Amino acid sequence: MSILDKKSITFLENYLNNPAPTGYESSGQKIWMDYLKPYVDEFITDIYGTAVGVINPKAKYKVVIEGHSDEISWYVNYITDNGLIYVIRNGGSDHQIAPSKWVNIHTKKGVVKGVFGWPAIHTRKNGKEEIPKLDNIFIDVGAKDKKEVDKMGIHVGCVITYPDTFNELNKDKFVCRAIDNRAGGFMIAQVARLISENNIKLPFGLYITNSVQEEVGLRGAEMITQTLKPNLALITDVCHDTSTPMINKKTEGHTEIGKGPVISYAPAVQNNLRERIIETAEKNKIPFQRLASSRFTGTDTDAFAYSNGGVASALISLPLRYMHTTVEMVHRKDVENVIKLIYETLLTIKNEESFSYFD
Predict the structure, then answer these.
(1) What is the pTM of this model?
(2) Which of 58, 70, 135, 185 has its CA 20 to 30 A from that of 31?
(3) Which domain holds residue 109?
(4) Residue 135 pLDDT > 60, yes or no?
């Protein structure tokens, strides 16, 4: 079974390079739907932009496979008289990586380039240096004053993204901003492709769901699950590679890129569905890792699980280095194995199968 082909990698690159921050996901969703179109019977979209490709839409029993499509970004919050721009977060943007980064400010007149400025090392006092904080990072667009910034079309509320694009590192690593979690949308699209190419006839309706606004509280998933009312949900997101420096494995657990999909344990994860995933991985010799969450997973799993009176839900994660930076990194084999694990798990699900807590 060919997991990743040239066409799929081209799609991944285009999909990652396209800016689609929280609340402004439409251009990315169009790329995703255009790729998915040959492999599904129809699409469902909602008022905030979540997109769902459906296979076998007339079936009563509904299974969701889901990722989220948005990326972290910034908003223009304040423009000084001398034309410098202060920002607030849109999602979990990391203020410490901002200084010296290029940015794209999205306006009605088009994209305006800018940079996060920072004082030169020569001007900072040893032992008393300011560190980057939300209230001291700023963007310089080369304007002499606020009036010139206004003429560029920049105003409070304009969204700001990083322009960093897709690269491959050492042949088997993918590096880009927004892998969290556009990789999820990519992987569920590959599952749909494999189902189509292998002429699989599913005994249930499959809803390939690319949700919006996860980065600000799982909002897209909260909305679409009420629309779909699924019986079962397999969620995919990213989790941390904890093998890199300055991460405490005693608190974060031990997961690494290159060692397989990560299967989560959490109250929102339905026990029997999780065990089915593990059995599928073992049967198909798919390497996997385990991760224990505390009260919640922090992913769209929580939104699906606690909706509609309860939906059997589970989480299969892609281990990732440097989350919420512009150099997020994943291993190609992990991407392939997450796709394979979701695909093989779907093949085990019977029509209207119960994953009762008491089974």
Answers:
(1) 0.97
(2) 58
(3) 73-161
(4) yes
